[in-house]
Every structure is written in C-alpha cells, then in structure tokens.
Amino acid sequence: MNVKALKFSNIFLLILLILGLYFYLIKPSRLAVVVVDGKVVDFSGVEEFIVPFVNFTQLFYVAPKHKLISCGIRKSMTQLTMNIMCLLYNETQFYDDNQSLNDTWLTERKCLENDDFIYPTESLENDIETARFAFIRDPIQRFVSLYLNKCVREKSCYNCGDDMRCTVWKIYEGLKKIQDHWDGHSEIGFMEGHAAPLSWNCDFDKDLPKWQLLMMGADSNERKSSILHLANILKKQGVKQELVEKIQEDMIAGETGHSTHKSAERIEAERQVREDPFIRDLLHKIYFFDYVVFPFKRDHLDPKYQSNFWTLPK
C-alpha cells in the first residue's frame, strides 16, 4: 500500500472512530422524539427530564360482563382498584371467599387466576360501549406514599434505607436508563415499576382520551367526588344499584392497611420534599410531564413549573 492510500485509510478509520464515540457516548436520547397520540413530539431542550408516554407498564383489571377495564397504577389506589374489579368480575366468588374492598395484598384472590380478568380482549378494547377508568393521584404525593411504604416501612428501596435523597436519585437514574433503552420486553424493576410516571402506564400513549380519570388525593372532598364519579361509571355499565351503593359505602368508610396519607411520617416526608432543593429538583425532572399530561394543580411546584414553559403540541 502506497503512502497516499495509507493516509486516506487512516483518515477513514479516524472518522469511523469519531462517529462510533459520538453514537456511543454523546448522542441525544433516542427517546428525545416520542410518538404521542399519533403525533411525533420532540423533547429536545428538556433532555434531563423523564419524558412522558414510554409504554413501560401494563396492569389491567377487567370485568368483561360489564364491559369495564381499569388501569392499575402502582401507588395510585391499585389495591382498591383490583378489589373493586374482582368483585365486579365474580360477585359470588368474592363473597364466598369472604373478601372485602379493604383487603391488602396479602389476600389471595382467585380472580387473578383468570386470563380474561387481567388481559382485555381485542373485541372488548374495540367495543364502543367499553368504559375505562383509572385512579390517579398527584405525582409528588404519590412519590411520598411510595417512599413511606417501600423505604421507611419495608426497607426495600435499593440500598438506601430511609435516605430520601438516595432513593430519589436512584429512581431518577433507573427511569432515565429505561427511557433511553426500553425495548418493550425487559424485566421491570421493582422500584421503577412503582415510581414510573403515570403516563407510562396502560397504553396511555395510544388512547388516553378513552380513559376516565378519577383523582384520589389526600383531600377528602376530592376523594368523595371521585367515588361518586366511579359510581356513575358503574351504573352506566349496568352494575346493579345495591352493588354500586355497597362499593361507595366501603370506599368512603375504609382505609387500606398500608395507607399513609394521614400519618406523622408523611408530614416529615413532605417537609423534606418542600425544603430539600436536591430532592425537589429531581422530583420536578421525574414528574413534570405528569403535570402537563394530567389535570393536576401545580401550585406546590416551583414557580418555573407552574407556568406553561413547555406544553404538549395540540
């Protein structure tokens, strides 16, 4: 090989090396561009944020005879959702097993053994009479509940113990890796599954307008309003009146065994969220787009995030 050919060969190899390093080390996240409700949305400029609508976790509960599908969003009344749907799926079995709407995860549920309870059929999904509902709660309140339940009480938050700074950083790191490399099939991590943004659930990226969203926060009036909303959904889907009333009464009267929304521990956790700038910064980066996608109040966010400095295109 002559000197000129060798020179061009070396230049070509150098270019390949530079391109390889770029795509391996510094290329923008491949999820900087996301398809939302059929539209391509460019998230350039907010790359440090966790983007919405990564189709990450699907937890459905189905009552086929009532043409009803619910979405189980972890740390957003999932336990209550499953109990209600088990009751609607097979009322006789539910009462024969002496179950109630306030049962905890420790209760064995026969409904979970049936595929048509956890996998909506294509015909049900395409039926215009099918109703969908999901309980949603303020994202930062949801994080606090997750932290108290999994970190303070169960000590199952990575290796962080009850260190909230450690926990929120690990969650941020985990979700960032998922959004950059999610292939739709990888195993879902325990904490990431519980902490994932609301919009990452139940195919919300495809059909969010079809879902009726029930706000379930710490405010009792908000909870009562959502309970009434659910009752109206159930009536419309042909659930008998006495069963609807039973569900309403049990929801108002009961609190699940690991509910944390009134505890002294929650007050301390909320203080950390309000006062620690490191925690606040990461929580805004993790959950900001949940406040864009869903109709939550933003008055407890930092001033920048209360404005519409970034919105989803119409």
TrEMBL record:
User: Which segment of the chain is annotated as a signal peptide?
Assistant: none
Domain of life of the organism encoding this protein: Eukaryota
- What stretches pass through the bilayer? 6-25
Q: Which organism is it from?
A: Caenorhabditis elegans
Q: Which UniProt keywords apply?
A: Membrane, Transmembrane, Transmembrane helix
Any one GO biological process: positive regulation of response to oxidative stress
Any GO molecular function? chondroitin 4-sulfotransferase activity
The molecule here is called Carbohydrate sulfotransferase
Q: Which Pfam families match?
A: Sulfotransfer_2
* One GO CC annotation: membrane
Matching PANTHER family? CARBOHYDRATE SULFOTRANSFERASE-RELATED (PTHR22900:SF3), PROTEIN CBG14245-RELATED (PTHR22900)
Which InterPro entries does this chain map to?
A: Chst-1-like, Sulfotransferase
Q: Does the keyword RNA-binding apply?
A: no
